[in-house]
Each structure stands twice: as C-alpha cells, then as structure tokens.
Design goal:
Elements: H1 3-7, H2 10-24, E1 30-31, E2 34-35, H3 36-43, H4 60-85, E3 92-100, E4 105-113, E5 124-130, H5 143-149, H6 151-160, E6 170-175, H7 177-185, H8 187-202, E7 207-213, H9 216-230, E8 242-246, E9 250-255, E10 267-272, E11 275-285, H10 289-302, E12 311-315, E13 323-327, H11 328-332, E14 346-351, H12 355-363, E15 390-394, H13 395-402, H14 410-422, H15 425-431, H16 437-441, H17 443-457, E16 468-470, E17 473-474, E18 477-478, H18 481-489, H19 505-541
Parallel strand pairs: 3-6, 6-7, 8-15, 12-14, 15-16
Antiparallel strand pairs: 1-2, 3-4, 4-5, 8-9, 9-11, 10-11, 13-14, 17-18
The structure holds guanosine-5'-triphosphate and calcium ion.
GO molecular function, one term: ATP binding
Pfam families: GDA1_CD39
Active site: 219
C-alpha cells in the first residue's frame, strides 16, 4: 500500500479510493468493498505521514455532493419560478351588451381571460345575434313586444356562455337614437318599452345591470374607445383613431382635435392607461341615414306646389325606373320634422337617378346659415378641423362596402356614385336578386348622403379623404359603441397604466433556464480545472 493510503484520514483516503477504483474498475465511495465512512474510521488517527494534504484540497465525494446539491438547488429554483409564473389554464369571463338601435337590436357577447382583464386588446367578441324585427322603439304601441323580441337571442347567449359563469356575467342594454326620439315624442311610451326589456332580461340567469338610453356624447365616446382599444392605441404614444358612426337615426363624430374645443357640450375628458385624452364628440340626432331620407323626402313633398292632387314625387336619389306608392305618414312619422298637410294619404315615389341633383337635395338638410364658433359642421354645431385617421363604421361601412367604394379616391368615389345612381332600377334589381328591394333602392341616396356628410358636413377634402377607413370589424370584434360601454362599466380600462412584468412569461422561463445552465457549466468547468490542478499537484508530490 502506498504511504499516503495508510496515514491520512480524510483527504488521503479519497486518493486511495480513486487509485483503487481505477485498478479494480469499481467506482464510487467504497474502499475494498467497505463503505467510505468505515474506511475513513479504519484509517483514522494515523499522524506520522508527511503533510501532502495542503496540495490536494479536493475530495471527490464532497465535490460530487456539493455539485449535486447546487444542481438540485438550481433545478428546484427554476422549477418553482416556472410553476409560480406559469399562466393558469385560461379562465374566461363574459359580458353581454344589447345594442338597442333605432333600426334593430343586436346582442353582443364578449369574453376575456380572467387574469388579464386590465390589459388592452384582451376583450374579444365571442358571438353576436341580431334580434328579429325592428328596433325596440318601434314597440311603442305594444311595449311588451319589445321584451319578447329579445328572447331568442338571449336564449342563444345562455347556450354560448358556460353555465357556471352565468351568474357573474353582466348584461347591459343601451338604447340609442330611436329611443331618444321616442322619449322626445312620447316619454311614458319610452319608459314602458324600457320596463318591458328590463323585465325580459331579468328572467335570465345573468347579472342584469340595467337598461337605459345613452346620450349622444356617450354613444360617440364609447365608439371611440372601442376602436382605439381594439387597435391597441391606448397604451402607445402613437396617435388615436377618430370614430365615425352612422346609424339609422343619428350619426356621431369623435376624435382628438389639434385645436381647442370651443363648446363645452362637445368635449369629453378621459384618463386611460395613464394618458389624458380630450375628445371632441358630437351626435347629430335625426341625421342617421333613415331619418335623413325622411327629412329629404319630406322637404321634397313640402316644396311640391300642388298638394291637392295625387303627388308624383320625382326623386334624383332613386334610380330611373323606380316607381313605388308610399304613404305620406311613412315619411312624416318622426319627431325630426313637422308634418305637412296633404290631401292624399299616398304619393308615388319616382326615381330620376341624377347624382348632382341628389346631392343638391341632400345639402338642403344641412343648415349652414349660422355658426357661433370659429368653425362649424352644420346646424350651428362647433367642429374643429378633422385631424388624423378615422374609422367609419356601421352604415358608413354597410353602404360604402356594398357600393365597392371603401378604397377609392374622393374623385373616383364621386364618379362611381354618379354612374351608380343613373343605373336603371331594373338593372340594379337584376344584378342583386337576393337583396331586399327596400335596402337596394336606398344605396344611391345613402352613398350620396355619406359623401355629402363627410365633405360638406365634416369638411373632409379630396386630400384627406383616404384618412377615412371604412371598417366593420377590428380583429373579431365589431366596431361600435357596445364594447367601449362595457369596458367602461366594468372598469376594465384603468386610469393608470398597470404594472407589467419586466419580460413576458416565455422570455422569463427561457432566461432562467439559460442562466441556470450557465451556472452549472461554470461550476463543472471550475470543478474540472481544480481537479486537473490537484492531479498535477499530486504528480509533483509523487
Ligand atoms: N346594407 C345593410 N344595411 C344595414 C345592415 N345593418 C343595418 N343596416 C342599415 O343601416 C342603417 C344603420 O344601421 P345601424 O348602424 O344598425 O343603426 P342603428 O344602430 O339601428 O341606429 P342608431 O340608433 O341611429 O344608431 C339602418 O338603416 C339599417 O337598416 C346591413 O347588414 N346591411
Ligand atoms: Ca347604432
């Protein structure tokens, strides 16, 4: 046996083990089949050997145990941090908003990951259902019918949302211009309609949060929030998108202006994700596309010189060859204008298809005779100069999309509209056999109204015409006021920017793993380096 083997208690024994293991082919911490602890005690107490211990500080079992401990420690640390930060299985929350518009009601179901509800862009539209029939304001003579009309879509909502989430799912109903007009016309009737829809919605297992008429400012502002939330503009320093909404009975314009807002009524302040926004917004009641058609036709009927005989109303906004008998009542059944005395209950609506004359007739519904501010749109309403990009949705989109005018220059739009309006009605019907004739007949008028509203009303020019993007959806969600309304009422857009982790979960895990791996590799390299220097130290001794 070499000298070193017999004498040194701990450290020398390690060398012995290694020497023996190499010779016999055995590894590990046994000495001649005796456990290490026993071998150590066997050799203990011998002090007569020369002091070679100083040059050989590494004992293999100790280092192995140490490295193993460090490795286990690192793995445990990484595992814990990974588990700690692992996203929980996606739990979704849901919300329902009923858009009770003047022409119809739509039910929107939204969903969002429960743990990320304050992040921008997280809420998405899961489902939408169009209520059959007209808007709730059309039930003024039969209020109960308003509530009943919602049942089919609400039953669908019950199917779409998991049952265990029903009781915590908020339901909001917001009514817009149709109900605003009904309230003006017949306040008790509008109350009855609201009571009816409330009664109906309360029969569902959701968390009913109320049914109310939105103000025009709310409608405009929530539409603006929706498009900017969906575009993820709100947490970035980049500009925002203006919102243009065209309904059946009202139209809204909302944007962040460059100049001062001169009228208090048109100003709304928001603090969202730590940024302050001062919005200009205006809602023109009676300037939705259905009401403007009535205004325009009413104006034409009013200016007919002979009201005693049957009237043939020649209308340049309808196609040549269009000829339909309509009731006078269907034009004047609105609080947006005063009725006119006519001998006959019906008139014949005759299309002439002349775009220039059509635009002239539409211009008459805009009163531009007075403006108490530095600049106005029409009817004495303040309008700062339009600035930046705009998202134009609802009927702005339906109409321009049908007319294939969503991507054209201003001049091309005008030119295509001219051609379209002069196309004979017969040909239009032939080209679109599946579209309801009522809708089909109104596109020339609607397209011309949109162009006139944007150009004459809002002062868009051929130069900035293409700043207007005609949109229906952003991602999977419809552009409209409903999402913004829900985000606001559920406090899902915080005033201050919430703290976010330094890096995303995936990046964090990768970083931790790589960093741990680096530590292990460094430790191993250090171990090998010291082992080699220990060996060369031994050789020196031998
Ligand atoms: N072509 C076409 N027109 C539509 C469609 N949906 C609605 N409209 C018409 O477009 C106009 C505006 O519709 P909406 O934006 O739903 O209006 P609303 O919300 O009922 O009305 P407001 O209360 O004024 O906002 C109405 O004249 C509708 O009849 C559609 O899918 N296609
Ligand atoms: Ca609407």
């Amino acid at each position: 046996m070499p000298k070193t083997e017999a004498s040194a208690p701990g450290r020398i024994c390690m060398q012995l083990t290694r020497a023996h293991g190499t010779a016999s082919g055995s590894k590990g911490s046994h000495y001649k089949g005796i456990p290490l602890s026993l071998a150590l005690s066997d050799t203990g107490g011998n002090t007569h050997m020369p002091d070679v211990k100083v040059k050989n500080p590494w004992h293999r079992p100790v280092v192995i145990v140490l490295v193993a401990f460090i490795a286990v420690g690192i793995i445990t640390m990484v595992s814990i941090s990974v588990v700690q930060h692992k996203p929980l299985p996606q739990k979704y929350k849901y919300g329902i908003v009923l858009d009770a518009g003047s022409s119809h009601t739509s039910v929107f179901i939204y969903q969002w990951p429960a743990e990320k509800e304050n992040n921008t862009g997280m809420v998405q539209q899961l489902h939408t259902c169009n209520v059959k029939g007209k808007g709730i304001s059309s039930y003024s003579a039969n209020p109960n019918g308003a509530g009943t009309s919602l049942q089919e879509c609400m039953d669908e909502a019950k199917q779409k949302i998991p049952a265990h989430r029903h009781s915590e799912t908020p339901v909001y109903l917001g009514a817009t211009a149709g109900m605003r007009l009904l309230k003006m016309e017949d306040d008790p009737a509008s109350e009855k309609v609201l009571v009816s829809v409330e009664r109906s919605l309360k029969t569902y297992p959701f968390s009913y949060q109320g049914a109310r008429i939105l103000s025009g400012q709310e409608e405009g502002a929530f539409g603006w929030i929706t498009v900017n939330y969906l575009n993820e503009n709100l947490r970035k320093p980049t500009g925002t998108l203006g919102a243009l909404d065209l309904g059946g009975a009202s139209t809204q314009i909302t944007f962040v202006p460059q100049q001062e807002i001169e009228s208090y009524d048109n100003s709304i302040d928001f603090r969202l994700y730590g940024n302050d926004y001062q919005l200009y917004t205006h809602s023109f009641l009676c300037y939705g596309k259905d009401q403007v058609l009535k205004l325009s036709m009413g104006e034409k009927l009013r200016s007919t010189p002979d009201k005693t005989h049957h009237i043939e109303l020649k209308d340049p906004c309808f196609h040549p060859g269009y000829n339909l008998s309509k009731t006078v009542q269907s034009v004047f059944d609105t609080p947006c204008m005063q009725t006119v005395n006519m001998q006959n209950e019906t008139f014949t609506h005759v299309g002439t298809g002349n775009w220039v004359q059509c635009q002239e007739s539409i211009r008459k519904v805009f009163n531009t005779s007075h403006c108490p501010y530095s600049s106005c749109s029409f009817n004495g309403v303040f309008l700062p100069s339009v600035d930046g990009n705009f998202g134009a949705f609802s009927a702005f989109y339906f109409v321009m999309d049908f007319l294939n005018l969503t991507n054209d220059s201003f001049d091309k739009t005008k030119q295509k509209l001219m051609t379209y309006c002069s196309t004979p009605w017969k040909k239009i019907v032939e080209n679109h056999p599946r579209i309801k004739e009522k809708y089909l007949s109104e596109y020339c008028f609607a397209g011309t109204y949109i162009l006139t509203l944007l150009e004459d009303g809002y002062k868009f020019t051929p130069e900035n015409w293409n700043d207007i993007k005609f949109i229906k959806k952003i991602g999977d969600s419809d552009a409209g006021w409903t999402l913004g309304y829900m985000l606001n009422l559920t406090n899902m857009i915080p005033a201050e920017d919430p703290d976010t982790p330094l890096m995303p979960h995936g990046g964090y895990v990768t970083f931790m793993l790589l960093f741990s791996l680096l530590i292990v590799v460094l430790l191993l390299m250090a171990y090998m380096y010291f082992r080699r220097s220990t060996r060369s130290g031994q050789k020196d001794i031998v």
